[in-house]
Amino acid sequence: MGYKKSILEFIEKSRRVLKVSKKPDREEYFTVAKVTGIGIIIIGVIGLIITLLTQILGK
């Protein structure tokens, strides 16, 4: 019966989070999308540089 209590506690905590959260407006959404895109590009460039360096130095 302990699992029912933990499930109910999880549901109550989830409700609390949903009450205080808000839907992002258009500007906030695009800002987050830009930052995420820039991060993905930076990580890709770092991976490309590491791959090129290992190929050059490996020979």
TrEMBL record:
The chain crosses the membrane at residues 29-53. GO terms for molecular function: protein transmembrane transporter activity. It is a single-pass membrane protein. Keywords: Cell membrane, Membrane, Protein transport, Translocation, Transmembrane, Transmembrane helix, Transport. GO terms for biological process: intracellular protein transmembrane transport; protein secretion; protein targeting. InterPro entries: Prot_translocase_SecE_dom_sf, Translocase_Sec61-g, Translocase_SecE/Sec61-g. It comes from the Archaea. It is found in: Cell membrane; Endomembrane system. The keyword Membrane applies. Essential subunit of the Sec protein translocation channel SecYEG. Clamps together the 2 halves of SecY. May contact the channel plug during translocation. Component of the Sec protein translocase complex. Heterotrimer consisting of SecY (alpha), SecG (beta) and SecE (gamma) subunits. The heterotrimers can form oligomers, although 1 heterotrimer is thought to be able to translocate proteins. Interacts with the ribosome. May interact with SecDF, and other proteins may be involved. This is Protein translocase subunit SecE.
